[in-house]
């Protein structure tokens, strides 16, 4: 005869724990709506997520449809916006050079490439502007035009401008040029550039 009968503990379905962990994941995603970086060789973030869930041995028994839809919608919107921005080959880079001395200005070098119409011609416009970040005024403005069927040279100039701007920034930080050397080097560099079409009002 048992004085204290053994209490029967109801067994929990293993799926209960899987569901709880999945709900935790969904709750975390709801709270943190910022960009989540993943280390994955898959270009598809949905596949990457499903692979991650699988690697955690989660047998998810709840509907992840809404989660996947949200991820896909975000991915598709981002892809569409990138496509819209790049459909005409538009590119843009900004190189900021923070002054090392309090009395000196910061500088920003704005580099862009766009397709434009000028004098009824479709042209690639490549620009390099140097701006005094403190006063907000442009110190150098240079525009270069390439024929519509010559995107290769336009892209090459754009990439060279970005490379040169970063090189000038590095030289200033390494004390190889003074602060006023930033203006001098960009002026000399842009004055040596040539494009397919020259306009008097390009500068």
Can you give keywords for this protein?
alpha+beta; 203 residues
How would you describe the overall organization of this protein?
- This protein has 5 helices and 4 strands.
- The longest helix has 23 residues, at 151-173.
- It has helices spanning 14-31, 45-55, 65-86, 151-173, 180-191, and strands at 91-97, 107-118, 121-132, 138-147.
- Helices cover 42% and strands 20% of the residues.
- Mean pLDDT is 76; it is low at 79-85.
- A hairpin with a 5-residue loop joins strand 3 and strand 4 (138-147).
- It has a 4-stranded antiparallel β-sheet, with helices on one face.
- The protein folds into 2 domains: 14-85, no CATH class; 91-191, no CATH class.
- Helix 4 (151-173) runs antiparallel to helix 5 (180-191).
- It is flat and about 85 Å long.
- The chain has 203 residues and is α+β, with helices and mostly antiparallel strands.
């Amino acid at each position: 005869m048992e004085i204290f009968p053994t209490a029967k503990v109801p067994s929990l379905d293993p799926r209960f724990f899987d569901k709880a962990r999945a709900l935790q994941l969904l709750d975390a995603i709801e709270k943190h709506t910022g960009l989540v970086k993943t280390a994955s060789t898959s270009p598809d973030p949905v596949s990457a997520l499903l692979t991650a869930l699988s690697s955690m041995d989660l047998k998810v028994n709840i509907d992840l449809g809404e989660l996947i839809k949200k991820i896909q919608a975000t991915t598709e919107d981002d892809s569409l916006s990138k496509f819209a921005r790049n459909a005409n080959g538009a590119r843009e880079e900004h190189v900021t050079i923070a002054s090392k001395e309090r009395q000196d200005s910061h500088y920003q070098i704005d580099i862009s490439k766009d397709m434009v119409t000028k004098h009824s011609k479709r042209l690639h416009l490549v620009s390099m502007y140097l701006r005094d970040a403190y006063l907000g005024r442009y110190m150098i403005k240079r525009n270069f035009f390439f024929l519509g069927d010559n995107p290769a040279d336009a892209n090459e100039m754009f990439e060279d401008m970005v490379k040169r701007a970063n090189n000038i920034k590095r030289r200033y930080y390494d004390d190889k040029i003074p602060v006023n050397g930033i203006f001098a080097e960009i002026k000399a560099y842009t004055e040596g550039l040539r494009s397919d079409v020259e306009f008097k009002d390009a500068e």
